[in-house]
Amino acid sequence: MSDAVGRRVRMVAGLLVLAELVVYVLVAQWIGLGWTILATLATTVLGWMLLARQGTRALADLRERARTRRSPGAELGNAGLVAAGGLLMVLPGFIGDVVGLLCLLPGTRSLVRGILTRLVLARLPAGLRPPVRVESVRTVEVPRADDVRTDRPSPPVIEGEVVRGPDGRPLA
After folding, report:
1. CA separation, residue 36 to residues 54, 92, 93 (Å)
2. Which of 103, 108, 149, 164 has its CA 20 to 30 A from that of 114?
C-alpha cells in the first residue's frame, strides 16, 4: 500500500472514530449514559443474531451455487456484505450500527451493493470500466431486408472480436 493510500485510510478511520465518539456523546446527553450503554449492548446482540441468521443464508446460497456449478455472482457479494455488516453491528458505535444494519438486511443490501459498485467503478481506469469497448478492424455497409426507404443508409456492420465479457474478465 502506498504512503498516500495509507495516509488516506488512516485519516478516514480517524474521522470515523471521531464521528462515532461525537454521536455517542450526543446520544448519552439525550437519553442518559446508562441507556446509551444498554443501547450499545442491545445493538451488539442484535448484530450477532442478524449475522448468524443472514450469514447462514448467505453461506447456504454460496453452497447451492457451488453444488450446481453456477457462478457465485451476487451471492458472493451478499456474503461479503453480511460479514462486513455483522462486524459493524458488533463493534460499538451507532453510525457503524446503521451502516451494518443496511448491509445485513436483505431489502437494503442491494442498495449498499449498488453504491459500492458505483464507488469502485468510478475509481477504475477508463479502459477497465463497463461497457466493454470493442475496436473495429473494418466496417461494411449491409442493406437491411426490411428497409424499403432508400434515402437513409443502412447501419454499418462492424466486424470485431469480443475479448472480454460484460464482467471484464477475458473470454476463454
Report:
1. 26, 11, 10
2. 164
